From TrEMBL:
SMART domains: HOX. Transmembrane segments: none annotated. Residues 232-252, 309-345 are annotated as: Disordered. InterPro entries: HD, Homeobox_CS, Homeodomain-like_sf, KN_HD, PBX_PBC_dom, TALE_homeobox. Keywords: Activator, Developmental protein, Differentiation, DNA-binding, Homeobox, Nucleus, Transcription, Transcription regulation. This is Pre-B-cell leukemia transcription factor 1. Residues 1-147 form the PBC domain. It comes from the Eukaryota. Belongs to the TALE/PBX homeobox family. It comes from Pundamilia nyererei. One of its GO terms (biological process) is cell differentiation. GO terms for molecular function: DNA-binding transcription factor activity, RNA polymerase II-specific; sequence-specific DNA binding. Its main location: nucleus.
Length: 345
DNA sequence: CAATATGATTACCC
DNA sequence: GGGTAATCATATTG
């Protein structure tokens, strides 16, 4: 046992051991070795407060993690304190011993100093072990709780609803801007990067096989179309919403009906009054309507329409990326023709 | 249980 | 830096 000390003591001196520094830095970064809050009970309270600040369900997921982390932190600190105390006690004990011995034989201060330094080194190596195992524990905790891949949770129904609504009403260009992403994130109670992930996944999976998403597309298209028309085309006879049900979608919109819808949109667009909201609404409708109509089997009749509405099936640019926004949302003041050209993608 | 759906990560590209 | 495509790891479903 002495051998260990001598070996360690020989090579290790004041210069900060890189390994130790690494551990210290990590513990600090993880908030384990951070400055202890004033009150003793502050740890739990602080953790709770910190979690309560930001995301709603996100923090809930992390609360468990934080609780465990603060547990680790507490253990770490008590252990550290214990070691320190033990070190001091042992030092004084040895000092006393030496003092006693000094009566019978001369003891140089150098010897005392050496003893003390050996003791300290021994205890600091114990501390090192403590830090190492604490780091390990934190790492495990992190991988267990923070690796979202491992702890994947589906978004709640409403969130996916909102996201799908946006996606299908911007089918021609489903690339939400940073602002739009933030908005969606806020509405859905998720993070912006989650929104980005969602759209990335959605785009690729939609494109991969559109047929699988037809029902869903119809559903959202019909819903938003009905919504929009009932808002923008004031009153009128409107259309019986008809079940937004997926199966019935084909039957729900017959040719004439969809034609009416389109006409109303067109005229409104031509009006070009009140840009902003209305314009955006219309643009959305173009997408959704296009989908509905194409699904309703409007191919035999409206030839012109059929061509431009022909959706992703034969779409010339199945990929979205190639076709940057053709004036989509930003210019509501275009002539009626622009709608067609716009939808031609 | 297998099969599918789904959110996150990765590699690679522009 | 943001996009796609492939992939991973889990959740949900039948």
């Amino acid at each position: 046992m002495n051998s260990v000390l001598s070996i360690r003591g020989a090579q290790e001196e004041e210069p900060p051991d890189p390994q130790l520094m690494r551990l210290d830095n990590m513990l600090l970064a993880e908030g384990v070795a951070g400055p202890e809050k004033g009150g003793g009970s502050a740890a739990a309270a602080a953790a709770a407060a910190a979690t309560g600040g930001i995301g709603a369900d996100n923090s809930a997921e992390h609360s468990d993690y934080r609780a465990k982390l603060s547990q680790i932190r507490q253990i770490y600190h008590t252990e550290l304190e214990k070691y320190e105390q033990a070190c001091n006690e042992f030092t004084t004990h040895v000092m006393n011993l030496l003092r006693e011995q000094s009566r019978t034989r001369p003891i140089s201060p150098k010897e005392i100093e050496r003893m003390v330094s050996i003791i300290h080194r021994k205890f600091s190596s114990i501390q090192m072990q403590l830090k190492q195992s604490t780091c390990e524990a934190v790492m495990i905790l992190r991988s267990r709780f923070l690796d979202a891949r491992r702890k994947r949770r589906n978004f709640n129904k409403q969130a996916t609803e909102i996201l799908n609504e946006y996606f299908y009403s911007h089918l021609s260009n489903p690339y939400p801007s940073e602002e739009a992403k933030e908005e969606l994130a806020k509405k859905c109670g998720i993070t912006v990067s989650q929104v980005s992930n969602w759209f990335g996944n959605k785009r690729i999976r939609y494109k991969k096989n559109i047929s699988k998403f037809q029902e869903e597309a119809n559903m959202y298209a019909a819903r938003t179309a009905v919504n929009a028309t009932s808002v923008s085309a004031h009153g009128s006879q409107a259309n019986s919403p008809s079940t937004p049900n997926s199966a019935g979608s084909a039957g729900s919109f017959n040719m004439s009906n969809s034609g009416d819808l389109f006409m109303s949109v067109q005229s409104l667009n031509g009006d070009s009054y009140q840009g902003g909201q209305v314009g955006a609404n219309i643009q959305s409708q173009v997408d959704t309507l296009r989908h509905v109509i194409s699904q309703t089997g409007g191919y035999s009749d409206s030839l012109a329409a059929s061509q431009m509405y022909s959706p992703q099936g034969i779409n010339t640019n199945g990929g979205w990326q190639d076709a940057p926004t053709p004036s989509s949302v930003t210019s509501p003041t275009e002539g009626p023709g622009s709608v067609h050209s716009d939808t031609s993608n």
